[in-house]
User: Fold these one by one.
Assistant:
Number 1:
Amino acid sequence: MKRNAINSGLKSVKSDVLIVGCYEGALENSSTFKQLNGAGNSLLKRFAAAEDFTGKNGQTLSHFADGASGAQTVLLVGLGERNKLNLQTLRTALVKAFRAVRGMKRPGAVTFAPLSLAGTSLTHLELAETFSAYAGMLDYRINHQKTAKLRFSEPGRIESLQLITSGLSAKTRSLAGLGLHNGGAIADAVNLARNLSNEPAKDCTPQRLAAVAQSIADNSGGTITCKLHGKAELEAMGANALLQVNAGSPLDPVLIELTYTPSTGATKEVLGFVGKGITFDSGGLDLKPADGMRNMKRDMAGAAATLAAIEAVAKLQLPISVKCFVAATENMCDGKAYKPGDVIHTMGSIAVEVDNTDAEGRLTLADAIAYAKTQGVTCIVDLATLTGAVKQIGGDVAAGAFSNDDAFLAVVDKAATRADEKLQPIRMYDELRGFNDTEMADVKNSGGALAGSTTAAFFIREFVEYGGNTVPWVHLDIAGTAFRDRELGADPRGATGFGVRTLIELARSAARKNRK
């Protein structure tokens, strides 16, 4: 999708769709509306009145352009009251607008008309970035691999975006152009995570994730380096938790390590992103029922989110060091598979009794986090489709957020809110930690059904805090939000790419802090 900021008048802009933002109760105060309405002998005004379009937030109204602009179709979108326009209300309006665009036969080129931001809390940089990001996220189509053989025809797609910046200063036009670029990087990252999570498990293997990681590094302009730790190296490293989860699969595991160093040089703070990378989860010998296995190709959604986020960090050229770690494997069952009752001596030197082979994600995260701590990260955020229990807390709306550091949790939660993703912070009561105790080892990998999301988080926390080099840590259980059976906000049905925007915004906030 091409993106451009253009300094042109309405009539000279060639476009299939012209989106016109309208403040509530102030249609005739808009110079753009006046121009469009005047050319049609007040037809647009009369049509808006007939359809009761007043500019309420999220209202849309489609009309032919009638020669008033170079566009074929005019789409009015309500922004609500001018003094209440902010990032969230703008997002709500753009979701409605781009859903309307998706319903058009040939959206092709889409242009956003000039909009005065006087009296609002928004900047033209924020407007451009949000317009660009939401266009990309809402134009997404699931990579369903349909063909034209049986009643399928490819729907129209947005081919290009234009933002008219006439009347703005040269500096503001430049910032608008930057916003379009930034929004494109964010949308591309979210859509990469969605695509990976939607791929069939036979295609999205540990080796496929490794190839994607290498490609991200190769295309980063030298700012990202990639290390792929294979089976022999994992054995030498003592990554026994990852190796045991992998034992029943014919595909080798791989520990993916990406390091982003800004062109301005490494920073003292190093963000650590850790993603659960189970490319298919059968449950192991504690086999899942058929319904529980249906969506397990997406058990690597956390890995997809972290890989996509570090790619976006590089595209945005953020002055903050970031490292990404993914322990990638399948969890399958054959005669070599690990068994309930086994004891695993992990990379973090903690002995773990296997209480349930379907609690495998936390085992792979344990080794990934233990390794990340040796690589100089100063904080860790892990993303994992870890427990079905978290759906009883946040449903499919909010991810569960657990932490060993209230201040860091507040930073991550603020980043999520600014990025338009929802977290539900969950207090980790010490009384629940003992559910992971066992007589056979230091800890077991399942604390049972009671407070299952919290006991799973406590298991991971053992590896974060072991060894004296504790770092601030947030665990995001995205099992309820990584894929949905409905459209919600900017997200489609299926894989959502949840967490990508939060990680990008967290890196941005760290970069802003680093600049001071």
Note: The longest strand covers residues 270-281.
Number 2:
Amino acid sequence: MNHTDSVEDADSPSETPSRRYPELLVDLEAAEGYYIILADEFGQQIRLSPDQLMVLSSAIESGVLDAVLQPLIP
């Protein structure tokens, strides 16, 4: 599996609770094409297909997420 910072086991993202950003992992052996893993510092994971990641990436690039998040930022 490929990881943005290092190679990790798919079931155990980084154990560093001081990190406050998600980790992006790639598990090429994942079932049903959900190769992309977004994991937080608490061990929660979201599995995405490459197509789903591309939709998310497009939303980020186009500013859609900025519009959604703006009311939540003090």
Note: Helices lie at 50-62, 64-69.
Number 3:
Amino acid sequence: MRLLVTALALISGICCLAGCRSTGNSAETNVNAASAAASTTQTTTTVAEAVAPPLTTEQNEARALLEQGKELFRQDKDREAAETFQKALGLDPDFGEAHLRLGLAYAAQGQKKEAEDEYTKAVEAYKKYVHTNPKDAAALYYMGLAYSKLGKHDEAVKAYKQAVKLEPEDADMYYELGLSLSRLAQYQEAVTALQKTIDLDPDNYRAVEALDKAKEGAERIKVLQKRQEELLKKQEAAKRANANGLNANTGAKPAPTATP
């Protein structure tokens, strides 16, 4: 996993979708930020685990095509990139990153339905993989990205949390965890995750911006909670006042009846 962290750091400084694409989507940037790990995700194992079987000829060809597709995508050649990812999947149908990348290429062309289908396939591919490789942080991270693309942030958070336990020094993983927590309005946890991102990567301006928004969200929640508490106190006070008034009326003596 030390090699994985090193690769992530090197790649994040070399190629980033944020500088090449105008989509503004942080998940796409972080997919590229860890591309070295992703291209071998299907066979990544920890030292304590058994060594995965070597890749087949078809799988190696699929990974070469994946790299070609990623370069085409960086050049805004979305249609050509999609076709290249499709070829990769023709050789390795369970290649999780190829499904994820194909989804991104479809999304860039406005093909929402096709993109969602690929994100779903990416999730299934990674679920199948981590079932036998539960300590592969990269696979869990990418599965989280696919869930995020589908808007399933509860599931994304679960995957990200597993990933950061395995890779506690990975800024990108904490960043995506923070974003998904914010989308679930779990702002205080989001603040913690995003602050961790900045601690690991002080120059991550996206994390700084996201942290500010998470703090604002956390403050709004505090204000709302305080208002709710005050409202409950007023309601309880009103109930007690009404109860005391009823008791007083019940205990009052009836007025004497006038005699003729």
Note: The first helix runs from residue 2 to 14.
